[in-house]
Amino acid sequence: MKTFDDLKNFYETLLYNDLKSLEAYRKNIVSRLITAMVIIAVLAGSICVLLRRMEFIFFALAAGFAAYAAVYYFCTREYRSKFKSSIIEKIVKFTDPGLSYEKDNYLHEPQFVTSSLFLKTPDRYHGDDYVFGMIGKTRIEFSEIHAEYKTETRDSRGRRHTRWNTIFKGIFFRADFNKNFQGRTVVLPDTAERLFGNLGTSLQSWNIARGQLIKLEDPDFEKIFVVYGDDQIESRYILSTSLMKRMREFKEKTGKNICVSFTGSSVFVAIPYLQDMFEPRVFKTLLDFAPILNYFENLELVVGIVDDFNLNTRIWDKQV
Amino acid sequence: MMLVLAGTVIIAFVMILAYNSLISQKNEVQNVFASVDALLKKRYDLIPNLISTVQNYMQYEKGTLKEITELRARAVSGQLSNDEKVEVENKLSKALGGIMVAVENYPDLKANQNFLQLQAALNEVEEQISAARRAYNAAVRDYNNSVQMFPSTIVASILNFKSASFFAAKEMERENVNAGELFKKQ
Fold first, then answer.
1. Model confidence at A317, in pLDDT bands (50, 70, 90)?
2. pLDDT in tens, A292-305
3. Is residue B7 part of a domain?
4. Do A317 and B124 touch (CB under 8 A)?
5. Residue B100: inside a domain
6. Cβ neighbours of residue A95 under 8 Å, at least 6 residues apart?
7. Does some domain include residue B140?
8. Is A319 a residue whose pLDDT tops 60?
9. Looking at residues A73-97, what average pLDDT do you find?
10. Is B3 among the domain residues?
11. 20 to 30 A from B21, CA-CA: which of A44, A111, A169, A239?
12. Closest to A317 (Cβ–Cβ): which among B35, B121, B138?
């Protein structure tokens, strides 16, 4: 377990020089972006003035924004890539030498579907920042994921409108689980019981798509989570009293509505985040320690699942 | 007249639902109890292998090993009442726990691959038994709630559904295994 001082030392001795060379690159990008912004603004304004039609302001603004977004994407693409290869990769290795990092890779859709955490199958699925390796005896992998499904509506003129809805956006984690099991157990945030009490529990028992409702004996756990599974005994075998306590503590630590599932001898954890976690700053200096601390804390939180869920304890029949 | 008829139909419907729910919960209790039995049998099957592996190494625990063999023989005889069964199970758990603690004194045994596999299998089955007991208690809780709560309690009392009893951990089982005590037995 790395301490704050270890990280500070790592930042000063190994990271700072790389950050300095990237900082020069960042400043160059910012000046290019400002120039582009001025040119686009002048062009959009000139078009409005030349056409002397105020109703074009809206179109000029929209076109201007689109042009700026494209310029931003192309200008920062290489910078983001360089930042991830030189900085994030080093922070990953610093967090645990047993881990590796691939910036463009991610946990693929079949695993997302296998996890059974979300009932909807994604129509659009992408991700990045793939981290994988061994923590003690446990193989882990995780990445950022954005999974969406499509809804289509037709307006009064018969025109088709497509809308993309997020199924999940955040960190998606998989690790080998330390006990043998056959079926599927899914642990989800318990909104129904929190809102409706016992009536909520009754509603949950009718959720056929999810399987049997598993009512566990830990009342604090039951307040936060709802558990569905194929087998009452197996779900309890997986969710020992100690693991329930550990999951409760992990939920408090993250402060997020985490979802956990146990299937195919793996444990999957989905931690929702609204923002991308490993992106570099563009309009602020890179030399600050605070963002580095933030990247490290995010990584440690996810990698820490192995210890938090006690996955390295191999006292049961499953040794590897 | 129509009102009375409608009332009777509704009451009959509620009673049928309550009866079906009671039956399914009772079956669930029996089903989980059968699973506990199956897991206990899995543990009995591991014991002879365990004894034959450890007896060559363990010099001072012969008494405990003999006790485990006898307890297993009693448990599989099929002539025990439920209370006796629970008592034998508890004693067996305690004795097996004691053996696992005593293993610390035998480095050769701790390095024996066969023993390590048996130990892991035993840990697994112990945890499964504990899970099955928790599942049984949850099934009993649901069933007892139905037996004691309105309106199903009316059906339960008419048709003589009795509350089921929980698996309670006995005092002896709650005690921590005392390694010193094991050696005193020799």
1. low
2. 999 999 999 999 99
3. no
4. yes
5. yes
6. A2, A296, A299, A300, A303
7. yes
8. no
9. 92
10. no
11. A239
12. B121
Average confidence (pLDDT) over A272-298: 90
Q: What pLDDT was estimated at residue A257?
A: 92
Whole-angstrom distance, CA of residue B146 vs CA of residue B159: 13
pLDDT-flagged residues of chain B (< 70): 168-186
Paired tokens of A229: 């599974």
- Beta-carbon separation of B137 and A217 below 8 A: yes
Q: How far apart are CA A307 and CA A295, in angstroms?
A: 19
Q: What CATH number corresponds to the domain at position B87? A: 1.20.1440.20
What is the average per-residue pLDDT within A73-84? 90
Q: What is the mean pLDDT of residues A180-189?
A: 92
φ/ψ of residue A142, rounded to 5? -160, 160
Q: A91 or A210: which carries more pLDDT confidence?
A: A91
Q: Which residue in A268, A60, A83 sits closest to A177, CA to CA?
A: A268
Does residue A175 have a pLDDT over 80? yes
Yes or no, beta carbons of A317 and B138 under 8 Å apart: no
Query: 3-state SS string over chain A?
Result: CCCHHHHHHHHHHHHHHHHHHHHHHHHHHHHHHHHHHHHHHHHHHHHHHHHCCCCHHHHHHHHHHHHHHHHHHHHHHHHHHHHHHHHHHHHHHHHCCCEEEECCCCCCHHHHHHCCCCCCCCCEEEEEEEEEEEECCEEEEEEEEEEEEEEEEECCCCCEEEEEEEEEEEEEEEEECCCCCCCEEEEEECHHHHHHCHHHHHHHHCCHHHCEEECCCCHHHHHHEEEEECCHHHHHHHCCHHHHHHHHHHHHHHCCCCEEEEECCEEEEEEECCCCCCCCCCCCCCCCHHHHHHHHHHHHHHHCHHHHCCCCCCCCCCCC
Which pLDDT value is given to residue A199? 64
Is residue B128 within 8 angstroms of chain A, CB to CB?
Answer: yes
Select from A192, A174, A182 the least CA-distant residue to A138: A174
A 10 A CB-CB count for B158 gives: 10
Counting the structural domains of chain B, the total is: 1
| CB contacts, 8 Å: B117 with chain A | 317
What residue type is assigned to position B44 of the chain? Y
Angstroms from B162 CA to nearest CA on chain A: 22
- pTM of structure: 0.82
List, in order, residues 6 or more apart from A241 with CB less than 8 Å away.
Answer: A217, A218
Structure-token match 């946990």, residue found: A107
**What integer pLDDT is reported at residue B171 of this predicted model?**
45
B72: which 2 tokens?
Answer: 């297993």
Query: Mean pLDDT lowest for which of A41-55, A160-174, B126-140?
Result: A41-55
Is 80 exceeded by the pLDDT of residue A49?
A: no
Of B119, B135, B142, the CB nearest to A233: B135
Name the nearest CA neighbour of A259 among A314, A185, A206: A185
Question: Lowest mean pLDDT: which of A248-257, A269-278, A311-320?
Answer: A311-320
